[in-house]
Specification:
By secondary structure, the protein is α+β, with helices and mostly antiparallel strands. Among the domains are: 68 residues, Sandwich (Immunoglobulin-like); 62 residues, Laminin; 35 residues, Laminin (Ribbon), CATH 2.10.25.10; 120 residues, 2-Layer Sandwich (Alpha-Beta Plaits). It is 14% helix and 29% strand. The strands form 41 sheets. It has a 4-stranded antiparallel beta sheet, with helices on one face. A 3-stranded antiparallel beta sheet has the order 1-2-3, with no helix packed on it. The protein is extended. The relative contact order is 0.04. It is a single-pass type I membrane protein. Its main location: membrane. One of its GO terms (molecular function) is receptor ligand activity.
């Protein structure tokens, strides 16, 4: 058998027709015999899924599969999307079923060319996925460990490669110098005090009775009195023993004996341990040394609101008064049990209750409705209508207001726009428009192109520069805003409309008209919408344009051997003759054979006919029809049309969607269509450009001519800009539109506020705020004026607040009273927030007694001398006085300021005043400057008694609290510590240097005094000092060494220099002349007589001895200076 097939032209997203023929191969040499012909029409999209088609013909049954596959590397429903997998230097990706690039594992980037390094790789890079090649100076699996300086022993790099930051108490370049040997090794024993003298060295200061390098040698251990708490010490070999006093224990008798360990206290008493004693704290009802005695619990009057107290063993019983309960009769019994009606709020009292009624109701249980219209509140003939908790007035014509008290003036406020004047015309108004404006309220720009003298902006055509001289150097192109299926029509105001082609609709002709809306396909056919037409895909057994024709399965006649064919829907029946049987009259012995029932059905012979028992998902007389269609699950999204194609389906998407299931919205803003900074709004098969200021048109390429309306007056020249214009005024004119005359200042505008007119620069008070009129603009301070009283009283003259139906008037007289007695006071609160301390009209966390101070919240604490205050002063009265201070009104024009007051908990003479703002512009680490100024000026007025309030004059103390965390101060504090340490180090170094100098001078002074003492001893020769100075040593006579007349200063002998000491050794005369107490000058040497030989000999001997002693003293000073220098170097290393 030979199979031949042909198809019609296949249009993507549209239908196809497949004709399949089966020919007898044995007869092909004679022209062939056609066995069966199958024709199938449908819709199919490119894909890998096979669509199985079953054809049950009169002669043979054909089962075949079809599919449409794009060429390699091409995708989407039109096979135009190219994607070729690659794995090389330019990319590492595969392609998914939609043709999108899918990066291989470990790659990223637009073309998957960038390797993904190992997770957590900090200071490294990679050429292959999962690698982490460390940068220079870093190590570790994730390159997150810095490499320290080579040889760094007790330090780390601390995030900076090749550095060595020493650990605590280690120093040196390689952190190998122990700067805290004492703290690390604790070498000193027996309580010795260890001192770090240099890196890796120490010195122990031992207690009396101990010695040795580490104080390990005990000489008289008890001399240091090591035993504590009165213990006696006994010296032993190598130590001591403490004999403890009663109640103490331990090696040093430092621990006391716990006498409570035996639990001596009875009946739950608490044992308190003492020194060689204990004490029992007994629970209520028990007494005695061990809590063994029952006490009288009623002696302390524990019952609060009771008739009597009954003493019991280990306890007591209170007999409470009416309305009280609890062990001590201190709990008020709740008498509120839903007695209050009409939404009234019940307030519990002692053995009673009070109903706080909703507005409009009164009575003990709020059962009586108040008649609001009985007082005739409506004026000017208005009709009063009663309502719950209120009333409404039906006004006569010409009146308005809540009580119809206002005579209506339709021109106040002025309804006319753009500077037009308003005229009252018999209950109506008329707006007299200025030039260039029109309309009832002068809201429309007057058209200037009515005469055709000006050029209309064409929103559909864009003028571009061109080199064609015949077109004037300008090329006109279409903006293409109406797409491929519409024509753009320009409007004079810069707008446009789209005239759509047949079959399309929408603002941009983006929507295909649904021609299948009326369901034209009959007998279960599927309607495929086209452009101004449709196509019906018919079910099995039907054909025709509307699937209204029953296909004739009897043509050609499938019945053999003279059988008669009867046509059915998608089936046929053969009436056989001459004892033929079977579906097509081809059987003799039975109605059934293996091909009678299709798709696995079981055939049953019934004699004259047969029946097929079909499996699931199949039906029909021979199980030839599928009962379950692929489209039954509605797999297509976003209005896509599902078409069954064999055992599969195809989705026909609406315009604007794509994908196998029509799940993807096509991005109509790609490529970007909007010019001049316009913003593209993507829609379903459309886009819209939101133009920047000064531009218009569908793609924002039209620069709006702001001069088209001729805004410049009095002969001025208008220059168009981007979103603006500029007027070049003629001489003598000025202003934005040249409407002003040079030298003439226009009169400022007045202001209207609450139906009152205020002239320019007028200031008036409104509640607690101050308002100012500035050239027609009203600017008021923004101080919250506090809650209003909602409880009436004959002595209250201020206006009362009427609570809304969802609010209740909560009585807070006691809470608000500062100096009792006070008039009744309450405020409206939401029913579900009756216990909320915050008034209902504000939202702030800056609340007295519960505030968290911050950048917009500050607290002022006022302490009063109550005896100097008049009675009846309330908290809100003081708070209102503070709100009305003029200094606050001057500061609160830019943001709201809230002032809340409350008596401080536990201090009835103290008032907490919380000032807060709603500022959001200041930094979180800075106090709001406006709030800071308000607090400063407010406290200044109160503390200096500058207010006229008698209540505030009784303030005796003012305290201000603010909490502000300043990041700058933090950073400064962070730098301040090292700066302070550096300063302390420098000061310490200077102190050490000063001590060194003082020590050195002291040593010199000691040496000088010793020399003087030795010199005084020379007076035993019965020669005075005066004569000794007149003699020269003859050993140096005739030389310049002994006869010098220069006077040597004492400072020369204070220098630590061995060379000078050698010179002094050679010239003892200079040593004598350098004494500060020599009464004569050097000239005395010339006038003195020669001394005797004996005297000269003694002088030389004594001078040599003195010189030797001086040299020894100087050497000792040199050794001391070297020791001190070494100490300084070790101290500096410790400080580092």
């Amino acid at each position: 058998m030979v199979i031949r097939g042909s198809r019609g032209v296949l249009e993507i997203n549209r239908s196809y027709t497949l004709i399949l023929e089966a020919w007898d191969q044995d007869t092909m040499a004679y022209g062939g015999q056609l066995i069966e012909r199958a024709a199938h029409s449908g819709i199919i999209l490119p894909g890998q899924d096979w669509h199985t088609i079953t054809h049950n013909g009169p002669t043979a049954s054909l089962i075949y599969r079809i599919r449409v596959v794009c060429d390699d590397h091409y995708y989407n429903t039109t096979c135009t999307k190219f994607c070729r997998p690659r794995n090389d230097h330019f990319g590492h990706y595969t392609c998914d079923r939609n043709g999108d690039k899918v990066c291989m594992q470990g790659w990223m980037g637009n073309n998957c060319e960038k390797a993904i390094c190992k997770t957590g790789c900090s200071h490294g890079s990679c050429d292959s996925p999962g690698e982490c090649r460390c940068s220079y100076g870093w190590q570790g699996a994730l390159c997150d460990q810095c490499i320290p300086y080579p040889g760094c022993k007790h330090g780390s790099c601390n995030g900076s490669p090749w550095s060595c930051d020493c650990d605590m108490n280690w120093g040196g370049i390689l952190c190998d110098k122990d700067l805290n040997y004492c703290g690390r090794h604790h070498p000193c024993l027996n309580g010795g005090i260890c001192k770090n003298t240099a890196p890796d060295s120490y010195e122990c200061t031992c207690y009396e009775g101990f010695s040795g390098v580490n104080c390990e040698i005990a000489e008289h251990a008890c001399s240091t009195k090591p035993c504590k708490n009165g213990a006696s010490c006994i010296d032993t070999m190598g130590g001591f023993i403490c004999t403890c006093a009663p109640g103490w224990t331990g090696a040093f008798c430092e621990g006391y004996v716990n006498e409570c360990a035996s639990d001596p206290c009875l009946h739950g008493g608490t044992c308190v341990d003492g020194i060689n004693s204990y004490r029992c704290l007994c629970p209520p009802g028990w007494g005695g040394a061990h809590c063994q005695l029952d006490s009288d619990e009623c002696s302390g009057s524990p019952c609060v609101n009771a008739h009597s107290c009954q003493d019991l063993q280990g306890g007591y019983k209170c007999h409470c008064q009416t309305g009280w309960t609890g062990k001590n009769c201190d709990i008020n019994i709740n008498d509120c049990h839903h007695q209050c009606q009409n939404g009234g709020h019940c307030v519990d009292l002692v053995n009673s209750y009070h109903c706080a009624c909703m507005p409009g109701y009164t009575g003990r249980h709020c059962e009586t409705e108040i008649c609001e219209c009985c007082s005739s509140p409506c004026q000017n003939g208005a009709t009063c209508h009663e309502q719950v908790a209120g009333y409404t007035c039906e006004c006569q014509v010409g009146y308005t207001g809540f009580n119809c008290q206002v005579d209506v003036d339709p021109c106040h406020p002025n309804p006319c726009l753009n500077g037009a004047s308003c005229f009252n015309v018999q209950g109506d108004y008329y707006c007299h428009c200025s030039d260039h404006w029109e309309g009832r309220h002068c809201e429309n720009t007057k058209s200037t192109c009515m005469s055709g003298s000006c050029q209309v902006i064409d929103s559909c055509t864009i003028a571009l520069q061109s080199n064609h001289t015949e077109t004037g150097g300008v090329q006109l192109i279409s903006s293409n805003v109406c797409g491929k299926h519409g024509m753009c029509i320009s409007k004079p105001d810069g707008g446009f409309t789209c005239a759509c082609d047949l079959g399309f609709t929408g603002a941009y002709c983006q929507e295909n008209v649904n021609d299948c809306k009326e369901n034209p396909c009959l007998n279960g056919g599927t309607c495929i919408d086209g452009i101004n037409n449709y196509q019906c895909i018919c079910k099995e057994g039907w054909e025709g344009v509307h699937c209204n024709i029953n296909r004739n399965e009897c043509s050609p006649n499938p019945c053999r051997n003279g059988g008669f064919c009867i046509d059915l829907v998608a089936d046929f029946v053969c009436e056989c003759v001459n004892h033929w049987k079977g579906k097509t009259c081809t059987l003799r012995d039975s109605q059934c054979d293996r091909d009678t029932c299709k798709n696995g059905g079981t055939c049953s012979d019934l004699g004259d006919t047969f029946t097929c028992n079909c499996p699931k998902k199949f039906e029909g007389s021979t199980c030839q029809l599928s009962s379950v269609k692929a489209c039954d699950s509605s797999p297509c999204h976003n209005g896509g049309t599902c078409v069954n194609s064999g055992d599969s389906f195809t989705c026909i998407c609406k315009d604007g969607y794509e994908g196998p299931l029509c799940e993807a919205d096509i991005n109509n803003c790609n490529p970007f269509p909007c010019y001049n900074g316009g913003r593209c709004i993507d829609g379903i098969n459309w886009y819209r450009c939101e133009c920047a200021k000064g531009f218009a048109g569908p793609d924002c390429r039209v620069n709006i001519n702001e001069c088209a309306s001729s805004p410049c007056t009095f002969g001025s020249t208008c220059i168009d800009g981007i979103g603006e214009y500029k007027c070049i005024c003629p001489p003598g004119r000025t202003g934005r539109k040249c409407e002003e005359v040079v030298g003439q200042i226009p009169s400022p505008l007045s202001c209207e506020f609450n139906r009152r007119i205020y002239s320019d620069q007028t200031t008036w008070e409104h509640e607690c705020n101050s308002c100012t009129c500035t050239n027609g603009v009203i600017k008021c301070s923004k101080i919250w004026c506090g809650p209003k009283n909602c409880i009436s009283h004959q002595n209250i003259t201020e206006s009362l607040e009427v609570c809304s139906p969802k609010q209740s008037c909560v009585v807070e007289t006691e809470h608000n009273c500062f100096v009792p007695p006070c008039l009744p006071w309450g405020q409206c609160k939401d029913i579900d927030k009756v216990n909320d301390p915050l008034p209902h009209s504000i939202n702030t966390n800056c609340v007295p007694n519960a505030a968290e101070l911050g950048n917009n919240c500050a607290k002022i604490t006022l302490i009063f001398e109550l005896k100097k205050m008049p009675v009846g002063i309330t908290v809100e009265f003081i708070c209102d006085t503070l709100r009305q201070f003029p200094v606050l009104q001057d500061l609160s024009h830019d943001q709201d300021i809230y002032i809340l007051c409350e008596v401080q908990s536990g201090h009835p003479d103290t008032l907490e005043v919380l000032i807060s703002s709603e500022s959001t512009s200041v930094k979180s680490d800075e106090l709001d400057p406006e709030l800071k100024s308000a607090v400063h000026k407010l406290t200044s007025i109160i503390s200096h008694k500058k207010s006229n309030s008698s209540a505030l004059s009784a303030v005796i103390e003012v305290t201000v609290e603010t909490i502000v965390t300043n990041s700058a101060q933090k950073s400064e504090a962070g730098l301040l510590i090292p700066v302070i340490c550096s300063v302390i180090g420098v000061v310490g170094l200077l102190v050490i240097i000063v001590l060194f100098v003082c020590h050195f001078r002291r040593k010199k002074e000691i040496a000088r005094r010793r020399a003087e003492a030795q010199y005084v001893e020379q007076k035993t020769n019965n020669e005075n000092e005066e004569n000794l100075r007149r003699y020269k040593n003859p050993l140096y006579a005739g030389t310049d060494k002994g006869g010098g007349t220069r006077k040597v200063s004492a400072s020369e002998f204070h220098e630590v220099d061995l060379d000078k000491f050698e010179n002094l050794e050679k010239s003892p005369t200079r040593l004598l002349s350098g004494r500060s107490d020599s009464p004569n000058d050097s000239n005395d040497w010339n006038n003195s007589s020669p001394p005797t030989k004996t005297v000269k000999k003694d002088i030389n001997i004594e001078l040599s001895r003195s010189r030797a002693r001086v040299r020894a003293a100087e050497r000792e000073l040199i050794e001391i200076s070297r020791t001190i220098a070494a100490d300084l170097r070790s101290e500096n290393e410790v400080m580092v």
